[in-house]
Specification:
Blueprint (H helix, E strand, L loop, with lengths): L6 H13 L13 H15 L20 H11 L12 H17 L6 E5 L2 H15 L4 E5 L5 H9 L3 E4 L9 H10 L2 E7 L11 H11 L2 E5 L14 H8 L6 E4 L12 E5 L35 H13 L7 H22 L3 E3 L7 E6 L4 H17 L5 E5 L1 H7 L10 E7 L5 H17 L5
Parallel strand pairs: 2-3, 2-4, 4-5, 5-6
Antiparallel strand pairs: 1-7, 6-7, 8-9, 9-11, 10-11
Helix pairs in contact: 1-3, 3-10, 4-10, 5-6, 7-8, 11-14, 12-14
Length: 450
Amino acid sequence: MFERNALRYLDEALVILEQGFQELPKFTPAVQPERLHAVLQEVAQRLQDNFPYPHPLYAGQMLKPPHPVAQLAYMLAQYINPNNHALDGGRASSAMEKEAVANIARMFGYETHLGHLCAGGTVANLEALWVARQACTQGLVLASEQAHYTHARMCEVLQLPFQSVVVDAAGRMDMNALEGILKRERVATVVATLGTTALGAVDPLHEIMQLRERYGFRVHVDAAYGGYFMLADNLDGTTRAAFGAAAQADSIVVDPHKHGLQPYGCGCVLLRNPSEGRFYRHESPYTYFTSAELHLGEISLECSRPGAAAVALWATQRFLPMMPGGEFARDIEAAHRTALRLHRHLADSEHYLAGPAPELDIVVWTMAAPSRQAASRRAQAVFDGAARRQLHLALLRVPNQLAAAWWPRLARDAETVTALRSCLMKPEHAEWLPRIIERLETAAREPPSA
């Protein structure tokens, strides 16, 4: 399950890295190899207490293993341990971060940008909303009911008024509901989600942009999960149109540690207008004196940030260029195709009630049953039965509005329905889908009392 052969390349790269410092006086780090070996053995034992996230039979939460080039580049950078706050903490890694972030900005169609890496989507969304507050101080922040809870929480931190917008039957922000709020309230920022974490739903960003022309508000795009689907050429028309409008957004968030094949944590925040860097202005008399070039800490709410994350991302983009039709893009497209294949199987099966067709690579379904409670019990049983067969899924509590739209024949004896959920984001999921379905079907055929 783990690639170990490539570790020899790390040793060769370390030789090259060390050559850059050969003029320094020699010294030998204190390693204590026997103690090091013992502790690592213990760590390996402790880490066995995990779900098999890298394996294709793990198809539950959105956990995609880092690419080997990202793992090795991260480890290589750790021998330097750069800090991408100020240039004297990480000259090379800061330059690599700027290049990697510029590649992401180009993917979204930004002609100009200001941006950087951060710990992940939570911090990235906090920063985007903070900039939005600085740029437009008055009015509500709106996001859909299926948007990540980050937005409501970060609005509390920033003391911004927040309101949820109801969703349509596909889990996307309802445009009629949004316009109703825009007519009644002063709205400062609308958050559009390109790939909700529960359903993989894509808000109709292109329609939100049309409303912006009439009502005037800032648009922030939370593409933490779905952003890399910008490169996919097999999305349906409405979903494609939403991604096509991303270049018009005022800010965008994406998480390379999801579909970007990076170790945690690696998020990215982008601002379309570089002049908004003025909001970050601050004094730090002991950090920014080494160079007149931009220090990344001057455009970030975070201070210390791992340069190794930037090195790993840069190396991955070098190995797998982010271009339409390239290997990286084809893997993203394969994830969508695999999700559609699973959805078709579920829709045709007597055991299941499928949710909406996946817009990206997240599939949601529940069990055929006379009532919501019965379906929920069966979903839990199948979840457990699949796990006994080493197939790891996820569970989702579907709210009444969506349950009524998707599964109207289930008697309403509960306000929610427990559903099964899969994120088929690994390239290997395409080849392993028959084995995933086989285990799923076996679990579904088990008697309810088993």
